[in-house]
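Example 3.2
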Amino acid sequence: MHLAYPAVLSALLFCTGLYGVLARRNAILVLMSVELMLNAVNLNLVAFDVWLSKTAEETLHSGQALTLFTIAIAAAEIGIGLAIVLAVHRNRGTADIDKLRDTAERHGPDDHDPDGHDSDAQDSDAHTAELPGEAQKAEATA
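Structure, written as tokens:
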């Protein structure tokens, strides 16, 4: 088999995985796309190892050994990644990456606006403005 076939297939797999990482919103689908990219790299490693072993007198099969290490690292990565995604899903109720980023920005430890005011103070001012006349005066004096 010619080297171009697995190289083109590997490039297609990698591009599909890259599209999945850049376009997907779900964290689990992003992890699956990363796995697809790693498998494209593994295919390239094995294809070039076979191609180089035909031309060299020594057959070390270093590409295949490196592929085994990559598979082990990918298994550890997907295990840790899924554990993190499940923990975040339990706490936040969603695995949508955009929603997680938005909630992290809104509910961060430093909830200050650019003017230096606390958001809690702004919330109490907005709450005070909604109260009727007598309740508003009592709230302002307290």
